[in-house]
Specification:
Blueprint lengths: L1 H8 L2 H21 L7 H25 L4 H21 L1 H14 L10 E4 L2 E8 L3 E6 L4 E5 H6 L3 E2 L5 E9 L5 H14 L3 E10 L4 E9 L5 H18 L7 H5 L25 H5 L1 H32 L3 H31 L2
Antiparallel strand pairs: 1-2, 1-5, 2-3, 3-4, 6-8, 7-8
Helix pairs in contact: 2-3, 3-4, 4-5, 7-8, 11-12
Length: about 350
């Protein structure tokens, strides 16, 4: 019996080490859930810290095992060889993506819900991790991009203040340029674009290429307004009695002076409010963006609390300031719990 107790007691150091590792995991989870109000970059740092705890913990467990020093040295050496081989074989991917993840987390304008384009990928950011960044593309599917890819390739980020959208139409040389530009600018204004302007982008053998551009403030409705701009261009050109056909088309068949402008029917004019396609396409990205907005609200509450606590020291109406502080702290706690719940729901969305 004494030998069994002695044998079990010999593992006390290992048990304590394992307990400390578990406590370290719980402590890092607690601390990162509160530092900077769950910012996405803290998720990246949290994953890196957990990996570091696992590596250090494995070495600590090996050191505290109640075995001979020679065998202990062999185990530690084996762990070192395995880790070295793993790092060497995956240095261009694992370590590269991890370092790129830390670097990308410092990019201020690359946050949840942001509309980005890199390579052939175009969509809104739904998740940012240590090794990969997830975006929701225009076909509603989720695409995982390695962080190293984002760090080594140009990334176009749609600015929150607005972006330029455009469309191109080719018209004949027989049309008056000023008349065409006027119709195109009216089309851009009618669909809600600001400061529209026209470029003549090409002089072809049979037609002139006009490109109408305008500033879109609501970047989250990029695809809706791109389609709307095309529709408005057709409508306004037809209203100005401008045919959207090239001389080449006209010269290749007998049209008997037919004008190629479709008649406007009652069915084509509608005021019915339809659901925007972005609400379906970017459902997960929209939820992620709302979480990011709430995180920004938490930062504002923190700043207000900081200012109120500074005023409290020398204030005469301390009770009123204390009441304001208590109200803000309650709002902060509720908002924090909502963020945690919504992040859990977001992780469950496939």
């Amino acid at each position: 019996m004494n030998e069994i107790i002695k044998f079990l007691f010999s593992f006390s150091g290992t048990a304590i080490t394992v307990g400390l590792i578990i406590l370290s995991f719980l402590f890092t989870k607690w601390i990162f859930s509160r530092i900077n109000q769950n910012k996405e970059k803290n998720s990246v740092a949290h994953q890196g810290t957990r990996i570091l705890i696992v590596l250090v913990g494995a070495l600590a467990v090996a050191i505290t095992l109640p075995i001979e020093d020679s065998l202990k040295g062999q185990i530690i050496g084996l762990i070192g060889i395995v880790l070295s081989a793993a790092f060497a074989l995956s240095s261009t991917t694992l370590i590269g993506n991890a370092l790129a993840g830390f670097m990308n987390s410092t990019v201020r304008n690359l946050h949840l819900g942001t509309l980005i384009k890199t390579g052939d990928n175009f969509g809104r950011v739904t998740k940012r991790g240590l090794f990969r960044t997830e975006i929701q593309t225009e076909d509603r599917n989720l695409t995982s991009l390695p962080n190293l890819f984002l760090a080594t390739n140009p990334v176009k980020v749609m600015r929150d203040s607005g972006t330029i959208i455009s469309t191109t139409v080719s018209l004949g040389y027989d049309l008056n340029k000023d008349q065409v530009e006027t119709a195109l600018i009216e089309a851009a204004k009618s669909c809600g674009l600001e400061d529209p302007f026209v470029y003549v982008t090409g002089l072809g053998d049979y037609s002139v290429s006009y490109k109408i551009n305008g500033l879109l403030k609501e970047v989250d409705k990029y695809f809706t307004f791109s389609s709307k701009l095309n529709s408005k261009v057709m409508d306004h050109l037809h209203r100005a009695e401008i045919e959207i056909v090239s001389p080449r088309f006209m010269n290749q068949r007998q049209v008997n002076e037919t004008v190629f402008i479709p008649e406007v029917t009652k069915e084509s004019v509608t005021t019915k409010k339809e659901k925007l396609p972005e609400e379906l396409v970017f459902d997960k990205a929209i939820k992620a963006d709302k979480i990011d907005d709430k995180i920004d609200s938490l930062e504002q509450i923190d700043e207000e609390l900081k200012q109120l606590k500074l005023k409290l020291k020398d204030a005469k109406n301390k009770e009123e300031i204390k009441r304001q502080i208590k109200t803000l702290e309650e709002q902060k706690e509720n908002l924090n719990s909502h963020i945690v719940e919504e992040k859990e729901k977001l992780d469950d969305v496939e």
